[in-house]
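chain below, 184 aa
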Amino acid sequence: MVGRTGFCIHPREALRGVPKLGGTKDVDIDALLALAPTHVIVNIDENTRETFEALRGRVPHVLVTHPNAPADNVALYELIGAVFNRERIAATLVDKLTLAMAAGARGGAPFAPRAAPRLARAVDDGGAGHYISNMLALLGWHTVPMQRGALPGTGQRSLATLGAELRLLSSEPYPFPVTSTSPN
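prediction:
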């Protein structure tokens, strides 16, 4: 591996010496090309079309990914394992992911919601069909969409109006502070 984004941080020890080449939306194309990669992995939801266009034809292999649900990562692991001749490692990841998804669906994952009188509702800027909504659905949570592009404090509908008990905000591209809102 010759480069990564600043968001690619795990496994920490293995990536510590791999140069950061910007973020997902602002990849330093010149620095990346200077490293002469044979493959670059991009993601439709994370990287810009401009990044893809800048790399296409200049890097031998640009792998475009677009998982929309946790189960989509099974095929993604298998693809990346085959491309990089790491099928056994990919198979191990597939097994671990399959077990984790099954545990999450049973409520046994450490991050799954605890039993409650009603299902927790979470607000996701992407809404139904997006990865985070599908991940939360696997754990038994339901998401309700926020108005696209609405940020905290900009007058969007209240959590009560949305029917949500909890608001989850991504740490990118904006580092939101951790706060809690009482429904009372």
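The beta strands are 39-43, 61-65, 121-124, 142-145, 166-167. Residues 114-121, 149-155, 179-184 have pLDDT under 50 and may be disordered.
thats it, cya
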